[in-house]
Design brief:
The structure is a single chain. The protein has 228 residues and is mainly α. The chain has helices spanning 5-14, 16-25, 27-38, 43-59, 67-95, 99-106, 108-136, 141-146, 152-167, 169-176, 182-189, 194-198, 200-209, 215-221. Helix 1 crosses helix 2 (16-25), helix 3 packs across helix 4 (43-59) and helix 4 (43-59) packs across helix 5 (67-95). The radius of gyration is 20 Å and the shape is globular.
């Protein structure tokens, strides 16, 4: 019987050959993440993604969930960091046209204002990317808002469902294609299907948001310590 992905990640921690095979099998995932975050597939970006993949292997603990969500999250965060670094480098370079410009950048107040603007721009960009990803699944932000659970008990149940989906790579992959695994949720939580159908768009959007590519949006859906 072939080991599953979680078992392969465990083996790769101790076996360089297994690690190389795991990297090779997941190059498409890394390439897709680079294309999404960096807008172009360059060797240096792929190297960052591969290093993040190895970091995920090293950090993986089966008691804390499945490997695939952890892998996606770490790769996304490292690429987001690189994108921010490149943007900051470009902005500093453009402002470094004279000694006066350099001096103004070095002033703490100016740096603080710049960082605030940069974070706000990042948030707007993240929301825009998230909205486009939802559109690819046939969902609008308005529909997500309309299907959002109103009662605390229902919100907590949906949060549990999001964590359950992320813990199972098969369920996560299916949900990220826009197909909520309602039968699996009914069985796991001993419920009827109406509650999941009522909040179907919200749950798909929540799983997408907490998959690692949208850290700001994810923080509003799951508490940091509960994130997959």
């Amino acid at each position: 019987m072939q080991p599953n992905l979680n078992e392969r990640a465990q083996l790769a921690k101790e076996d360089p050959v297994q690690l190389e095979r795991l990297i090779r099998d997941h190059r498409p995932l890394m390439t897709a993440a680079v294309r999404f975050h960096m807008r172009s597939v360059r060797d240096e970006y792929l190297q960052i993604a591969q290093e993040a993949f190895c970091e995920a292997v090293e950090a993986y603990n089966p008691e804390r969930g499945a490997f695939l969500p952890l892998c996606r999250r770490i790769i996304s965060l490292r690429l987001i960091d690189e994108r921010r670094r490149l943007r900051l480098d470009r902005e500093v370079s453009m402002s470094d046209l004279s000694d006066e410009a350099q001096y103004s950048i070095e002033q703490s107040a100016s740096i603080g204002a710049h960082q605030m603007r940069s974070r706000e721009a990042e948030r707007r960009e993240e929301i825009g990317e998230y909205a486009r990803a939802l559109q690819g699944l046939g969902i609008t932000l308005r529909q997500v808002q309309q299907s959002c659970p109103r009662h605390r008990s229902t919100r907590e149940l949906c949060q549990q469902a999001v964590r359950l989906i992320h813990a199972d790579p098969t369920l996560a992959e299916r949900t990220l294609r826009g197909r909520l695994p309602i039968a699996a949720l009914c069985e796991a939580f001993d419920t009827g299907d109406k509650i999941w159908e009522r909040h179907r768009r919200y749950l798909i959007a929540a799983v997408l948001a907490t998959d690692g590519s949208y850290p700001t949006i994810a923080s509003y859906i799951l508490p940091k310590e509960d994130a997959p």
